[in-house]
């Protein structure tokens, strides 16, 4: 028998308060009219417009009928609404779900044309950073707010009315997967610039119609509804062309003009192909001092692009962003879709591929590159015409083969010699990010560096004081002034290669020279994690100072994956430990355009080292002088770059960082939660039976000698102080406290103990997943009794009817208080196709992190706990969800797979990056 701790009693009180406030305790399974309001746990009063997290979610069932057991009647995808108002009694609870419409013959895959639109979409990305508010001239109701989301495998696109975030109803089907003519694999979404209140929606498709090579950027009217007839989607007839007619050895021969035919199924869709003969090397050697000159890196070895050397031909757009002034749209190339669906066999072929790097193995070119290494920039038109979807982009006329492309630029491959070619540094540009502010002024609050270009001095006590005292704002300088520093740079990350890259000026035309002797934007490697480490979908803070970088790990230790563990800790301890990093990118942005030999970015790969595996010094001890003696000094002690002054600095982490809390060299440990394999945390007030019960046997947990550990041994190994759980429950109020002892993501232990934030859950390790999607909270949160937090008002200035550019943070100083972000631990499974799948899943949890806006110190929000398990983070796939009755439309349909999310609240207008709509609705969220 166990005694309830204070935390358990608080949880019970939370539930009781919520039930009392709603006026009714509903019986299990009873229908709800809408989600409950946020009730202040201190006062019992309603919190007006409490913030929520909208989570775009797939059904957890893997295999389709008739192969498996996923019935079309019970495997629905959905949008979940989570209460994320920190003072709410329901903080961390799923409070509502909204379903999808069922239309037949909508999906291309899985199962041919038999799938319905509400199942097996594998929900992927959505309008996360922004939302869409109708101006009334787009076929939607004026003033109402919407978000859009896509199915990565179905090609379907959906629209939800989110005007009332606690009463979201069934979505509309905007595009059926059978209606694009050239495209597949739905990815990023963005609202396009235009005067007035109405705007187009643009999103990326990563591949061609049949999930092969050559993706598109696709434009639709936000009010489009997918044409149907008698409940069936009206398809368009796909363009049928041999593979090499459009890409590969013959170059971009055809299919590069936008496709906007008015066929019944296709009307209202424009697909802009990204393929172009750009004469840009796919592995540029002049953007790094340590280029990989091997013959196998000069030309593509994969079947889809066999022998290709021009990055322009390999169009696989995934990540996407708009520049702060709305003039340019940029996309990053990730992978050929068909190869992703079969990626799970890579491990089995890795030994063969290592010995046969110049041989294309198998039908999908597994040994070669099926991944992208380039970024494309498009020019926006800034116009809106209802019904005309070849509208938002204009011709740049830089390349004769595709007039819409302004530039193609590839990121460099570095000194690492990987046995598997797609583990090379530049392979698979998953994420893309652009600065949100137009500039900063030298010495501006938040940007004062005390003369230290690395910004280490800025986060010391003296540096924080100097920034607090600064009276300089972004309005104190203008273009042309010596102290005006433009933010024209961009970030991208290679998920397969494991490197974060930076370009200081994304606006350069593809035919203009850059500071490193090439043409178009140049890219420099700024942080190398290592091979196949899953450097995934990052987010940039609205003030441009910090980048939140998830590292999903992908590789697993030998006790779990003997065949694929060779690189798990190859270059340094905890190399593939699942973690989320807070990266101080001010040293990079402070260089401005960095467009001369004297000012260009110096940060580069870690130098080569022929005495070490893979010819790299990655992970060896850093040699530069340590200018910072503050709380996060344990970071930046190993080489992840060449240690130039303009290299970014790590200021905080959630998860087991490579150096641990007490110095470098600590081994990776598994999370202490062994009861729910899908949850990576042990809540401080919980008692997990099979950790505490010596009779519980977990067959796949072993010690270093390979001995199987039972529950008793696991408890001893992790040094769990059961009797002390109530004492450790002292983290109170609205979550975490930022101080010198709680800044490393491991505030209370060495990685396996309660409260550590250890993300190495068994399910993450088994499924080769981890943190993948991150999102900065632009909505803000309710103030706590201690005064922490508060709504961040980031209104744009209105210029000529457009809200651009957003030059400064209004409502509170640029560098004060804390900010928070969400991260989700799920990539893409795709086993329901059916097929081998991606080989990277995750434990399907949603977590919140917080960081100090002055120093970047970061911790897991341990007060954001699962309503069923009591553990930090919200687990959509635990056993407890199997029979749980989800509120709203979903009901009792089992576990789920969350991929993307959006912070929202009623009345808040989210701009992205700060422009649209021109006339915000209650921009400060105060009503």
TrEMBL record:
Regions of compositional bias (Gly residues) in chain numbering: 742-755
Keyword list, A-Z: Signal
Region Disordered: start-end pairs: 259-294, 551-570, 742-761
Residues making up the signal peptide according to the UniProt record: 1-33
Tagged with keyword Signal: yes
Top-level taxon of the source organism: Bacteria
Ranges annotated as biased composition (Polar residues): 277-291
Listed name of the protein: PilC beta-propeller domain-containing protein
Species of the source: Solimonas fluminis
